[in-house]
Amino acid sequence: MDPDIALFVDVVREASLAGGARAWRLSPAMVSKRIARLEARLGVRLLHRTTRRLSMTQAGEAFHADVAPLVAGLRMAEARISQTAAAPAGPLRLTVPTSFGRLWVAPCLPAFLDRYPAVRLQFDLSDDYVDLAAARVDLAIRITTAPPPGLAGHRFADNRRLLCASPAYLEREGRPATVAELRRHRLIAAQGQLPWRLTGATVEGESRVETNSSEAVRELALAGAGIALRSLWDVADALADGRLVRVLPERQGSVEVGIWGLHAPVGAPAAVPALIAHLTEQWRGAAWMT
What we know:
This protein is of the alpha/beta class. It has helices spanning 3-14, 17-24, 28-42, 58-82, 98-105, 109-115, 167-173, 179-182, 214-222, 232-240, 271-283; strands at 47-49, 54-56, 90-96, 119-125, 139-144, 152-158, 161-165, 187-188, 196-198, 201-203, 227-231, 245-246, 258-263. Helices cover 40% and strands 20% of the residues. A five-stranded mixed beta sheet has the order 4-3-5-13-6. The chain has a four-stranded mixed beta sheet with strand order 8-11-7-12. Helix 1 crosses helix 3.
């Protein structure tokens, strides 16, 4: 791995030379010198640098889009191979959204603990966005658009969200053919989930049932209470066996949202990349991973 390219990726992630310097334990002056060396080698300017802000040039954005996934992949490969010399051990605190954790993470953990018996796992289910450093969390699985500044991220998959309803509801109320017709239907969403931002449209409205539970929304949709916008990982089984049917299949939720594993950029325990690799292996072939 080219160290200057890896440093460039981390500077962009931290949104500052000082942040990159902290992550690499270098002085800001040395970070600036190495970025300048990379720019000279490439023959283009990658970053706009001022006393107040840092931003990428157009060439920098294109270069970052190409190299950031490669750097993340190489780091993951290095972490996996290093485990052959030192198996993961010690405490590992994992936090996961409630529904996703119950359905897709908890069933995978026994095999991971059998493989790495020296790991002491603390598994928290929470829909709150906790501060990883303050809460001493080693790995957080979050459904979001991108890793926040100061964290490294592994994107497991896109979080595809689809409109769906039960056959009984659609038989009773009719199937909407357009977004305009959808707005006149009974919508179901947890607090804060409306308006729905779909590909090419936004759906305003109020939920037929006021609830703080995303799991309750799924059960209400299954029971025929209305139309819901649900993640594919949550409803793939119900769509496959016909308990739910897609509505307006040409529309879906924002394609920018993904399922991420987030952790500290440096100093994460060896169990973190081991668990990320294990979950990736366990989820391979799942409908929502495609």
